[in-house]
Amino acid sequence: MALLFEYLPLILFFVVYKAVDIFWATGVLIIAAIVQLVYYKVSTGKIETRHWIFAGIAVVLGGMTLAFHDEQFIQWKVSIIYALLGLSILFGKLLFKTNLVEKALMGLFSSVQKEQEVEINIPNAIFNQLLVLWVFLFLSIAVLNLYVAFNYSLDTWVNFKVFGLMGITFIAIVFTMFKVYKFLPEEQ
């Protein structure tokens, strides 16, 4: 259910775009992003940085899309978010010597470690390979989004944004799990 709520603004954007147009869809995206922030604040007492960033970009670029009646602003949103993600991972490693991919994965695996009382030891080389993969992937998606947005129809871009990016991300997640699977404890 939490995953569905995470993607709710995207789902609503797609449905309203198909039913009405890009401008209504953008308005719904802005409202859904704000409602999502309120929900996280009420339900957990805090709002994670990524939710602030996603909502902020949706409000600013969505607002510009509506104010100027120009869909190009909302089309930039995907590229800005993915470029920020890729650069955050890259600069986290270069400037702060922190592998954010490792932190994210180990955060996911922490419940497994506690439940099975085992330690998960994944070599740094694997985490570094995954870091390069995710930086390359995020920066490539940022560029690919702009290419699709400015070389194809609005319908093609919306479909790419919803289905293409989800498909690319799913493949990358499967590859990531494949790389770390042999280091995970076997089920009892």
TrEMBL record:
Annotated keywords: Cell inner membrane, Cell membrane, Membrane, Plasmid, Transmembrane, Transmembrane helix
Membrane association type: Multi-pass membrane protein
Residue intervals passing through the bilayer: 22-40, 52-68, 74-96, 130-150, 162-181
Key word Membrane present: yes
GO cellular component, one term: plasma membrane
Domain of life: Bacteria
Subcellular location: Cell inner membrane
Subcellular location, principal: membrane
Function: Plays a role in cell envelope biogenesis, maintenance of cell envelope integrity and membrane homeostasis.
Family as reported in the entry's similarity comment: Belongs to the YciB family.
Protein name: Inner membrane-spanning protein YciB
Species of provenance: Pseudoalteromonas xiamenensis
Phylogenetic lineage: Bacteria, Pseudomonadati, Pseudomonadota, Gammaproteobacteria, Alteromonadales
